Amino acid sequence: MDARWIEIDTDLQTAIDHFEKSIALHELGGFSQPGLKGYQAEMALMHALQSAHTSLENALLRVLEMLGEERPEGRNWHADLIRRVAVALPQRRPAILSEALAKSADETRRFRHRATHNYDSFEILDLEPTIEAARLLVSGLMNEVNAFKIKIDPTD
Questions:
Q1: Buried b vs exposed e over 15-31: b needs ≥16 C-beta within 10 Å?
Q2: How many domains does the chain have?
Q3: What mean pLDDT is reported for the chain?
Q4: For residue range 54-90, what is the model confidence (pLDDT) as tens digits?
Q5: In contact, 8 and 62? CB cutoff 8 Å
């Protein structure tokens, strides 16, 4: 394995692990329990999803850095990062994520924003699109990044 990918692969696997655990927490439920039990269930799920998306972003930023591509900057850099990795740069690199997987990553990004800034209005019923996005990321993320790896490093 090319050493340039060690940290990227670690971040990707961490993201996948957190997404898998967030799906399991969602299926476990307990969000409507009174008091501390319901609070604990909500917070665990929110934190798992936030950690998953943050690990995904870390991996994508490492890919850009490895390629010598500057990271997005400014207020909307999180959204810009997702958009950028879904776009091929002619003569430089193919897209890192497909449009479909980037859409899922954008959903988890939007959830992280809501959970960070509006956690007091957390509604478990609004979470279905985010959980579905997590499922798609779990099933496709490593495959898509590995396909990208092969395109830019065919001997790896």
A1: bbebbbbbbebbeeeeb
A2: 1
A3: 93
A4: 999 999 999 999 999 999 999 999 999 999 999 999 9
A5: yes
pTM of the model: 0.93
Domain of 118, in residue numbers: 3-152
**CB distance 55 to 11 below 8 Å:** yes
CB atoms within 10 A of CB 88: 11
Q: Token pair of 29, please?
A: 């439920």
Residue 56 contacts residue 133 (beta carbons within 8 Å): no
- Which two three-digit tokens encode residue 101? 């997987």
